């Protein structure tokens, strides 16, 4: 009789240890999975889980302390583009380097979505592989006037050239077309100084 109780007790202890070990293993795997998530992964997860054509927005604090509400449209390798509400209720398009994000202000539901990680990358669009320099080269090619929010202030102008880690800006008044006669100065600006490109 005592032997039966002893074996039952040993069996219970072994089962408890195996269960605890399995729980610890699952917890460690989850910590490792979360440790591999990047900011971009979490942005993609929120964006992918929003209903198609929804008008959700993300609250973003930039590295200079300013805050934006941006409705993401595309997320690239190191940037996101979207719509932001401008002054007087006018919407504007923008390109936001991911390196300019100081923090995301998310709802509890959005945080939960981001922890799931990105969806299957098998159907990734071309924009997910494009870098910030490619997007800026496209703006340069189109000769679009832009507003650059830098860590040191705001500049208006047209992007003349784009290098690997910098761009050349021909400064001129906001809203005017780039003509040599209206350019006030030329600047070479490292990408790490760019917080926002507003179109």
Unreliable segments of 5+ consecutive residues: none
The coarse silhouette is elongated
Could you state the order of secondary-structure elements as H and E? HHEEEEEHHEEEEE
Tell me roughly what share of residues is in helical segments.
25-40%
Structural class by SSE content: alpha+beta
> Major beta sheet, specifics?
10 strands, antiparallel
What is the rounded Rg? 25 Å
Task: Describe the structure in your own words.
With 199 residues, the chain is an alpha+beta fold. The chain contains four helices and ten strands; from the N terminus they run H-H-E-E-E-E-E-H-H-E-E-E-E-E. The protein has a ten-stranded antiparallel beta sheet with strand order 5-1-2-3-4-10-6-7-8-9. The radius of gyration is 25 Å and the shape is elongated. The N and C termini lie far apart (84 Å). The mean pLDDT is 84.
Please describe the topology of this protein:
Blueprint: H1 2-35, H2 39-48, E1 58-62, E2 67-75, E3 79-85, E4 91-97, E5 101-105, H3 108-115, H4 132-142, E6 145-150, E7 153-162, E8 166-171, E9 185-190, E10 194-198
Antiparallel strand pairs: 1-2, 1-5, 2-3, 3-4, 4-10, 6-7, 6-10, 7-8, 8-9
Helix pairs in contact: 2-3
Keywords, separated by commas or semicolons:
199 residues, alpha+beta, ten-stranded antiparallel beta sheet, 4 helices, 10 strands, elongated
What is the gist of this entry?
By secondary structure, this protein is of the alpha+beta class.
């Amino acid at each position: 009789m005592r032997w039966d109780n002893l074996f039952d007790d040993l069996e219970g202890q072994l089962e408890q240890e195996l269960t605890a070990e399995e729980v610890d293993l699952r917890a460690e795997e989850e910590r490792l999975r979360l440790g591999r998530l990047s900011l971009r992964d979490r942005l993609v997860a929120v964006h992918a889980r929003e209903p198609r054509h929804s008008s959700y927005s993300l609250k973003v604090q930039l590295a200079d302390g300013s805050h934006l509400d941006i409705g993401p449209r595309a997320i690239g390798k190191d940037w996101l583009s979207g719509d932001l509400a401008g002054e007087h209720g006018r919407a504007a398009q923008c390109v936001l380097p991911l390196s300019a994000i100081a923090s995301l202000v998310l709802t509890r539901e959005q945080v939960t979505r981001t922890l799931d990680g990105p969806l299957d990358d098998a159907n990734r669009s071309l924009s997910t592989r494009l870098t910030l320099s490619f997007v800026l080269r496209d703006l340069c090619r189109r000769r679009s006037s832009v507003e650059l929010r830098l860590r040191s202030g705001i500049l208006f102008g047209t992007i003349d050239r784009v290098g690997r880690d910098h761009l050349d800006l021909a400064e001129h008044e906001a809203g005017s077309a780039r003509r040599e006669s209206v350019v006030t100065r030329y600047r070479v600006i490292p990408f790490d100084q760019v917080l926002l490109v507003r179109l």
